[in-house]
Amino acid sequence: MAHLVAAFGTSHSPALNSPAEDFPLHAERDAAYPNHLDLSGNPTTFEELVASANPAIAAEITPDRIAARVAATTAVDGKYARIPKQGELQLDPKAAYVHLTSNNTIFGTQWFDFPDAGSVPLVADMSSDFLWRPFDVRRFGLVYAGAQKNIGPSGVVAVLVRKDLVEKGRTDIPKIFRYSTHAKENSLYNTPPTFSIYLIRNVLQLVEEQGGLSAMEQRNRDKGALLYGCIDRLSSFYRCPVEAGSRSLMNVVFRLPTEELEAKFISEASKAGMVGLKGHRSVGGIRASTYNAVDLTGVRTLVSFMEEFAKKNG
Ligand SMILES: Cc1ncc(COP(=O)(O)O)c(C=O)c1O
Question: Could you tell me which of 230, 229, 277, 238 has the C-alpha nearest to residue 258?
């Protein structure tokens, strides 16, 4: 039986489909088209590009039309150590929408209860905590999530959007950016990454076989209890900068007494087969990402390593 070893998706499949003997023709045509390829190596500014474009396209490239944004909340004392409380949010009842990112992969904070935005549609970037548990989608006007954390490979974004918002969507933006375009075309306006979607189908089947989202939630809560439990138990060595109640169950961040020990921790963990534990470059420290794919056994292995490391280096 044939074995699939690789699959490629490209938005330029017509070019890839053309026979190899035609490639020099493409190159010649591209080289002759100055807006496409400037062989003199001169940089072209965005304004120059827009000026040289077909006027119909140029009219669609309108970054100035993207409306003003207002922060409803900000870091407390310069730190993102907790999720803001409802009373701390400055929500404008006339806003077009209120946006939040339900899990912060860098600082390791997560919204467990979503804010009340009144009649203003709530919009969430759930990229890093989509489908870790059941959630009430009726609370939201729009949810979007890159697949790459909990549900499959990168290249796919899941979007759940209320029908009335699709209908009310702006039409003064490029057609490809309008949800109505994708809704009308049944998500086939552009070429879908079929291989990634196929893998997502398999992941969703696996989630169902393992007991569905309620089982996923229990498993994620158990993992979090184990890992945060270890950090708090060994608090003279490990420290989680995030307040209890806001601690992410997807990205567990913590610090060690010194940066040198953190480097040693990462290096020894790697030798023990645990990779990807380095915190985001903007904050440093350690970050254990415990997405759905990480099981309880994996977290137990990390906890044993942490106990051992603290004993030897504390
Ligand atoms: C919450 C959140 N939003 C957005 C992104 C970035 O996604 P992309 O690289 O697909 O734009 C990430 C990280 O992958 C994320 O965690």
Answer: 238
How many Cα atoms are found within 13 Å in the side-chain-facing hemisphere of 130? 24
Can you give the length of the chain in residues? 314
Asked if 252 and 280 count as a contact pair (C-beta separation under 8 A), the reply is no
Q: CA dist 22 to 14, 16, 19, 34, Å?
A: 12, 10, 6, 20
Q: Which domains does the chain have, with CATH numbers?
A: 29-61 (no CATH), 72-208 (3.40.640.10), 212-313 (3.90.1150.10)
Cβ–ligand 1 contact at 146 (below 6 Å):
yes
Which residue type, as a one-letter code, is found at position 171?
A: T
pLDDT at position 1 over 90: no
pLDDT digits (tens, 9 = 90+) for 11-27: 344 455 567 777 777 77
Our answer on whether the CB atom of 73 is closer than 6 Å to any ligand 1 atom is no
Whether the pLDDT of residue 192 is over 80: the answer is: yes
Average pLDDT over residues 274-288: 96
User: Which residue minimizes the CA distance to atom 3 of ligand 1?
Assistant: 127
262 lines ligand 1 (CB under 6 A): no
DSSP 8-state assignment for residue 84: P
Q: Is 127 in the pocket of ligand 1 (CB under 6 A)?
A: yes
